[in-house]
Amino acid sequence: MSTNSQTLDAIYNDGERLVPGQTHDRDEVVRHKSSYQLFRAIIECDILRDPSMLVSGFTILDIGCGTGHGTFMLSDILGAKITGIDPSIESIQYAKDNYGAKSIQYVNGDAESYVRESRSFDYVVSRHALEHVVDGLNFALKVNCRRRLMVNVPFNEGDGNVHHLVHWIKEEQFEAYPNKEFFYEGLDGVTALTRTEENPPNSIVCVSSALALKPVRELFEFPVAAWKPEFLQNLGIEALESQIQQRERYLIEKETQLDTHHSNLRDLENDVRRREAWVAEKEAQLATHEANLKGIQTDLVRREEIIAKSRIARLALKVGSFVK
């Protein structure tokens, strides 16, 4: 799973999208995967309680699916038909190329326009995407969701990220969500029922469920463990970490070379300034010398004029004496 650097930069978007095996570190991969693992666990528990879902089938909308790595984790749930939507054409193409499945349809477009078409789904999931949409949390409520709306967004994040349009998200921002429950995902990917001010979570998860459904907190025990990569996935992550370390060493080397270059450049500039000062000094001395030379030349001309006049005077005296 690889792509050219220009396309990868467009997908990456200053770190806003994750490309497994090519961007971000192990911890970020674990957090992303843990979120979708939780979504999947909830849906599978619903199926166990209502096996008719396997016969009738059900639909899932993934808002802001990015490169599709999370969407793909839901693709082999029996009976699922999934739509992943994202505004990045590069991300959707990457998803189609690398995380495609018969049960998944990837759509490149604006989620708001897509929702306005009055589409309905059994489940709606979104992981760190709604903060990119103006009034994104309430926007998700516009989707006709029949069973559960599951939203994962940054918890109480400040205004520093210019890509995010919604900030300081806490429980009160979900006031309009009916029949809601809150869960908290830590930096380690573990999802808990509660949070503390001393150790705030990385993400807040809000699940808004149909009244007929059992509360999520009663489906399985919490805390929910973080996603763990399988052997081959772990090899891929380790390979990525090795690449990142190599890139960091390369950047450090280049920064050192750049510092040396700047130091040499400063030395060169200082040497040039010294040379320019020396040249200016010599030019000043030369100008003084030329001025002195002109003075000497002027004095010589005056002396020659005096001598010439003296000779003429002496000659005149001689001629006068001769005439007498």
Secondary structure layout plus pairing:
Layout: H1 5-12, H2 26-49, H3 52-56, E1 58-63, H4 69-74, E2 80-86, H5 89-98, E3 104-108, H6 111-116, E4 120-127, H7 136-140, E5 144-154, E6 180-185, E7 191-192, E8 203-209, H8 231-323
Largest sheet: 8 strands, mixed
CATH names the topology of the largest domain as Rossmann fold
Determine and state the CATH class of the largest domain.
Alpha Beta
Which oligomeric form is depicted?
Answer: single chain
Order of neighbouring strands in the sheet with most strands: 3-2-1-4-5-8-6-7
Give the distance, in angstroms, between the N- and C-terminal Cα atoms. Answer: 126 Å
Q: Going by CATH, what is the homologous superfamily of the largest domain?
A: Vaccinia Virus protein VP39
- Low-confidence stretches are none
Number of strands: 8
CA-based gyration radius: 40 Å
Explain this structure to me?
With 324 residues, the chain is an alpha/beta fold. It has two domains: 5-228, Rossmann fold (3-Layer(aba) Sandwich); 229-324. 48% of the residues lie in helices and 16% in strands. The protein has an eight-stranded mixed sheet with strand order 3-2-1-4-5-8-6-7. A hairpin with a 5-residue loop joins β6 (180-185) and β7. The termini are far apart.
Name its key features.
alpha/beta; Rossmann fold; 2 domains; eight-stranded mixed sheet
